[in-house]
Design brief:
233 residues, alpha/beta, Rossmann fold, 39% helix, globular
């Protein structure tokens, strides 16, 4: 009897999300992407959601539960994120609210929808950032929201003790995605120079790490740094 493994990922239409959707599909997972646009992946189920709009839960909860029904294990990956630059002194307050809505409130709301359906052996994975544990100039809203993601993951680990569901927060460094490439070639070279391996991370590498975390409960409660080794100043 073949067990039905399901990946539910937010923001599965591009970047790390799309790479993860493809990687899990290679391992036999049914893939459900909860995002504004569909993932370019044959066989994937797309459920439309805009996490900046709190009304997404009312529209998406039913389709999500229906798509997950009958799963023997579920891996929920909170990947969607909003990055709005700005220093503490010049912070875009509305942008901070949107960042928290997308990066923190939406994962918490989705956990509430999905947890009743999760069998033992399932997992909840958060895609954080190097800014989940440190900060850099000009990224106050993003760093604050990603620190909150770390707190949500740690709370998940404690609250789900004994359920057989594990969690972790994967914290990518500079990853070669569409968003990063928008900064231009010179900026990419500079970012690559800031890590010991002198290159950018590929989305596939983060996807491989997410799959590893999904399959290994020993990582429960872990913050997993995936940054190729920042060069210390």
């Amino acid at each position: 009897m073949t067990l039905r493994k399901t990946l539910l990922i937010t923001g599965g239409s591009r970047g790390i999300g799309l790479a993860a959707a493809r990687r899990f599909a290679e391992e036999g997972y049914d893939v459900i992407s909860l995002s504004r646009s569909a993932a370019a992946l044959d066989g994937a189920t797309h459920i439309a959601a805009d996490f900046a709009d709190p009304a997404w839960t009312a529209a998406a909860a039913g389709p999500v539960c229906a798509a997950l029904a009958g799963s023997d294990s579920i891996c929920l990956v909170h990947n969607s994120a909003l990055q709005i630059p700005g220093s503490t002194a010049e912070i875009d307050v509305d942008g901070l609210r949107r960042s928290l809505e997308v990066n923190v409130v939406a994962p918490a709301a989705l956990n509430r929808i999905v947890l009743p359906l999760m069998p033992r052996g399932s997992s909840i994975l958060y895609v954080g950032s190097t800014l989940s544990q440190r900060a850099t100039r000009g990224m106050a809203a993003y760093a604050a929201s990603k620190h909150a993601v770390a707190g949500l993951m740690r709370s998940t680990a404690q609250d789900l003790g004994g359920t057989g569901i594990h969690t972790a927060c994967i914290c990518p460094g500079f990853t070669d995605t569409e968003m990063l490439r928008s900064y231009g070639g010179d900026a990419l070279k500079h970012l690559a120079s800031l890590v010991t391996q002198q290159r950018l991370i590929t989305p596939r590498e983060i996807a491989d790490l997410l799959l590893h975390a999904a399959l290994n409960p020993i990582v429960n409660g872990s913050m997993i740094q995936a940054d190729l080794g920042f060069i210390e100043p």
